[in-house]
Specification:
Number of helices of chain A: 18
Oligomer: heterodimer
Shape of chain A: elongated
Largest interface: A-B, 43 and 48 residues
Helix content of chain A: 40-55%
Distance between the termini of chain B: 56 Å
Number of domains of chain A: 3
Strand content of chain B: under 5%
Order of helices and strands of chain A: HHHEHHEHEEEEHEHHEHEHHHHHHHH
Shape of chain B: globular
Strand order of the largest sheet of chain A: 2-1-3-7-9
Helix content of chain B: over 70%
Structural class of chain A: alpha/beta
CATH superfamily of the largest domain in chain A: NADH:ubiquinone oxidoreductase-like, 20kDa subunit
Structural class of chain B: mainly alpha
Number of strands of chain A: 9
Radius of gyration of chain A: 31 Å
Radius of gyration of chain B: 20 Å
Strand content of chain A: 5-15%
Distance between the termini of chain A: 122 Å
Number of domains of chain B: 1
């Protein structure tokens, strides 16, 4: 695919109707909470957009992010938008390998220096450069080198955004997030394990339309997708408010679809679009299929005190601690009380009665 | 320390430590009082000590007309924030889940919006109580550092809980961690301050009533 065709031309060539294209623009606008009046602007901008060069680097990752993007939604307009960007380097998807692949990356960098979008999935090991290499180049070196000419960096998946599973304790590879290493480039975090495909295309569409990165929250995530917690948008929320909870995965509450808070749902502390955008072409999301949210789009979700423990409950056995403390306290209290009584009776014994004679003597 | 590490600390070692201080401290305090015992009353009983004790537990919990007239504000605000604390602590769904997990007992919760509104009312009552303490010259004169400390550690969990529930300002894990930490402060302060009255007041009322009951008089 040549780089000089506009997105509009490419989409029409692939049989996407004007109507389908506008539907995508409208969906994107509503997802990003933009007013409907922005739809024509998005359409016009995307229509005219040149296929931007995208370099996709995969480091310590499981390819789940790529799987999520390529398999779950195809073939949809989102998928074709992806075809329509110039994905110049991607380990999993490119046909070339070894020196040829690296040459493609270097060529794309040179040709679009300062303009290409760098997408990263996976964390970067810092303990030893040999833990993860591509064509003999350490992950860190490749990231620093490629980031230099990027217009913006999109950290796809929790590993690239926050360190993810490789970063989990005890973090043997010294894994870090992209934002830990790169401070001088705009970075958009698109966390999730994996992230929702439409969120990635939404972020890319935003970048193509406005030429700027979307509004981000404190963790560098686009507010449009990560602005509300799963809990706030959860269809099981009324059960939480009524105090109706599933206690196990097969009890009456679970069958009736009650709240999964007690089974460890991390919905209240997790910010993502799962509850509204859903997965598998809008079929459902984890809570809808009866499993609590793991909180995969939050930092350190792997070390959050257990997937199946409610978020506010103690991690240790408080009942046992309290029992021991009562025992020790009772023993100490009784001992102190006995000491007080002993002191009292000693004082009583030491008490000498004063007679009139004694008083007379003192004169 | 990251937010998650802080949350794990307050749910783990922090809570363990606070529980030990709270439970051990209160056990010592209560038993020290009980072990002291009472001198045997050699006079002939003119009424039931037990009945008098139990009656006084109830009668002292209801303000008599004179007290109500003299200190209407203290009585009303005091009742509001004590009932408010009861509702917010014991009838909020996540709190009941915690108690169930630790003690294995549970009861029905109030709807979340009711608890939410109660929290606001309780906070207002506590603020009013503090203003009253500062404005009344006698009360201010009698107040020591401990009185302000006790007020602070009592209102803190309410405020942090309210903020955590509405997710104002910080990320939810940090807000929950701050809320749990504020409760741990309250637990640590409990055995060493006037807060211990929550456990000793009924014992004291029983003793007072029992003494009078034995003598055949109402207290």
């Amino acid at each position: 695919m040549s780089n000089d065709k506009t997105l509009g031309e490419i989409l029409r060539k692939q049989g996407i109707s004007r109507r389908g294209f506008l539907k995508f623009c409208a969906a994107t606008a509503s997802m990003m909470a933009l007013p409907p009046s922005m739809v024509p602007a998005i359409a016009a901008a995307l229509e005219k957009a040149r296929r931007p060069s995208v370099i996709w680097l995969s480091f310590q990752e499981c390819t789940g992010c790529t799987e999520s993007l390529t398999r779950s939604h195809s073939p949809t307009v989102e998928g074709l938008i992806f075809d329509a960007i110039s994905l110049d380097y991607h380990h999993t998807l490119q046909a070339a390998s070894g020196t040829a692949a690296e040459a493609a990356r270097e060529a794309a960098m040179e040709e679009n220096y300062g303009k290409y979008i760098l997408v990263v999935d996976g964390s970067i090991p810092t303990a030893n450069p040999g833990y993860s290499t591509i064509a003999g180049i350490s992950n860190k070196d490749m990231l620093m080198d490629t980031a230099m000419g990027a217009a913006a960096i999109i950290s796809v998946g929790t590993c690239a955004a926050f360190g993810g599973i490789p970063h989990a304790k005890p973090n043997p590879t010294g894994a870090v997030a992209v934002s830990d290493l790169i401070k001088d480039k705009p970075i958009i975090n698109v966390p999730g394990c994996p992230p929702i495909p439409v969120v990635i295309t939404g972020v890319l569409a935003h970048f193509l339309t406005f030429g700027a990165i979307p509004e981000l929250d404190a963790l560098g995530r686009p507010v449009a997708f990560y602005g509300k917690s799963i809990h706030d948008r959860c269809y099981r929320r009324p059960f939480y408010d009524k105090g109706l909870f599933a206690e196990t995965f097969d009890d009456e509450g679970a069958k009736k679809g009650w709240c999964l808070y007690k089974l460890g749902c991390k919905g209240p502390t997790t910010y993502n679009a799962c509850a509204t955008t859903k997965w598998n072409e809008g079929t459902s999301f984890p809570i809808e299929s009866g499993h609590p949210c793991l909180g995969c789009s939050e930092p350190d979700f792997w070390d959050g005190g257990g997937f199946y423990k409610a978020i506010s409950t103690p991690t240790g056995d408080i009942g046992r601690t309290a029992t021991y403390a009562i025992g020790a306290g009772a023993a100490a209290g009784i001992a102190l009380g006995a000491m007080n009584r002993a002191k009292h009776s000693r004082a009583e014994k030491a008490h000498e009665k004063v007679t009139i004679d004694d008083l007379d003597k003192e004169k | 320390m990251s937010e998650t590490e802080f949350l794990l600390w307050v749910r783990g070692p922090g809570l363990q430590g606070a529980t030990i201080i709270f439970v051990l401290g209160m056990a010592v305090r209560i038993l020290e009082i009980l072990v002291l015992g009472r001198k045997p009353d050699l006079a002939e009983a003119r009424g039931s000590a037990v009945a008098g004790g139990l009656r006084t537990i109830i009668t002292r919990s209801v303000p008599d007309k004179g007290t109500f007239k003299r200190s209407t504000f203290t009585v009303v605000a005091g009742y509001i924030f004590h009932f408010g604390l009861f509702i917010t602590i014991l009838l909020f769904a996540p709190h009941i889940l915690l108690i169930d997990e630790v003690l294995g007992v549970s009861w029905p919760a109030l709807p979340t919006p009711v608890v939410d509104a109660t929290t606001v009312v309780t906070i207002i009552a506590l603020v009013a109580v503090l203003i009253h303490r500062l404005k009344d010259p006698v009360l201010r004169f009698l107040s020591r550092f401990q009185d302000y400390l006790v007020w602070f550690v009592t209102i803190l969990p309410l405020v942090t809980g309210y903020i955590a529930f509405h997710r104002i300002g910080f990320s939810p894990p940090l807000l929950i961690a701050i809320h749990i930490f504020s409760v741990e402060l309250l637990m640590v302060a409990f055995p060493f301050t006037k807060l211990a009255h929550a456990f000793t007041l009924f014992v004291a009322r029983y003793y007072n009533g029992a003494i009078s009951g034995y003598r055949g008089v109402n207290s």
